[in-house]
Design brief:
This protein has three helices and four strands. A hairpin with a 6-residue loop joins strand 2 and strand 3. Helices cover 52% and strands 12% of the residues. By secondary structure, the chain is of the alpha+beta class. The termini are far apart. The protein has two domains: 62 residues; 65 residues, Apoptosis, Tumor Necrosis Factor Receptor Associated Protein 2, Chain A, CATH 2.60.210.
């Protein structure tokens, strides 16, 4: 046993050093991966905060009963609707009557609907309701009238 220990000490130490070196490399790799994960988590947190702020901004823009719907290239879309090339209706993004109010969206038929087809632009509102809200609305008097403005 003494001969083995004296003759093999160097090879044992070399093997042990190689093992320690390999484990050190693995730890360094793991530290790098952990650091990348931390950076990724930080990016995800920042993205989530931006999205949360965007949602707050959208809600504040669309939760006061007033909704401004910008329609880019309106003239071309109007011509496309009159020629039958455009799908109808155009649907707005949802908006709310107030912060805890009804969710709704506007529909716009650029070539009109029904008897107004080809002569007028038709506008409609779609209110998203649960059955319980429908009962509440149908049993209450609602004096609010939607108001539409067409801006250049």
């Amino acid at each position: 046993m003494k001969d083995h220990l004296s003759n093999s000490t160097e090879s044992h130490l070399t093997s042990l050093c190689e093992l320690v070196y390999a484990q050190k490399k693995q730890l360094e790799n793991q530290k790098e991966r952990i650091q990348l994960q931390k950076e990724h988590i930080q990016l995800q947190k920042e993205t989530l905060l931006l999205q949360k702020q965007e949602l707050i901004d959208v809600r504040s823009r669309t939760a006061n009963g007033e909704f401004i719907w910008r329609i880019p290239d309106f003239t071309r879309k109007l011509m496309d609707a009159k020629s039958g090339r455009a799908p109808e209706p155009m649907i707005s993004e949802p908006f709310y009557t107030h912060p805890h109010g009804y969710k709704m969206c506007a529909g716009l038929w650029l070539n009109g609907v029904g008897t107004g087809r080809g002569r007028y632009i038709s506008v409609g509102l779609q209110v998203s309701l649960d059955k319980q809200y429908f009962i509440e609305i149908s049993n209450t008097e609602n004096n609010e009238v939607p108001f539409f403005s067409l801006l250049n």
